[in-house]
Amino acid sequence: MCLPPLVLLITMAADHAWLALIKQQLDHASRAASRYGITGQVDAAAQGGNMVPLCPGGEASAGGPRVDRIRAIIAMQAGALIPVDQMCLGVGSYAGYQGVGQPEPLADVNGNGRHDTGEGFTDVNGNGRWDADQAIPTPGGGDSVAVYTLRYTAHPLSGVVPGLPPNIPLETRMVVRNEPF
Questions:
Q1: How many other C-beta atoms are found inside a 10 Å radius of the C-beta of residue 147?
Q2: Which residues contact 172 (CB under 8 A, 6 or more apart)?
Q3: Among 26, 89, 98, 150, which is least packed, fewest CB within 10 Å?
């Protein structure tokens, strides 16, 4: 009579421990990559090894040698536990902390809080259109603020724990100020 609840309890503990381990690996990989990114180094470009793909919607698709090295560091740090092709990296930079996650300044004539045709705006990231986030899709230059976002959809080990969905989106963000290089 006690065996089924005990097995369920052990299964719940194992699933939650697995998810905590995955989250910790994402945090660790993001932290290691951001430590490299803040230095502005470009000398150790990735040499065709495993690289985490960039998240869709980011315009830094090629990325250059610095972004490629950041992607390779993430793959090296988290790839033993998490499939590299199932993670994705988002990179953005801002002039200062005050711009992180903020929309581009807008002359909101009708007061609806979004950009409508004919309303003026300041194109902070230089892409020619209004964006809800003013990030420039690069790790930025010296003294800029860089945001590294790592995403992965985790799956529980057992899949039998009540209330635990089969797909659990995980995300970690590192916000750092680049060194003055």
A1: 20
A2: 23, 26, 27, 30, 149, 150
A3: 98
Max Cα–Cα distance, the chain, nearest Å: 70
pLDDT per position as a tens digit, 26-80: 999 999 999 999 988 776 555 557 899 999 876 555 568 888 899 999 999 998 8
Whole-model pTM: value is 0.85
Q: Long-range contact list for 167-173, CB < 8 A, 24+ apart?
A: 168/19, 170/19, 170/22, 170/23, 170/26, 171/26, 172/23, 172/26, 172/27, 172/30, 173/30, 173/147, 173/148, 173/149
From first CA to last CA, the distance across the chain in angstroms is 66
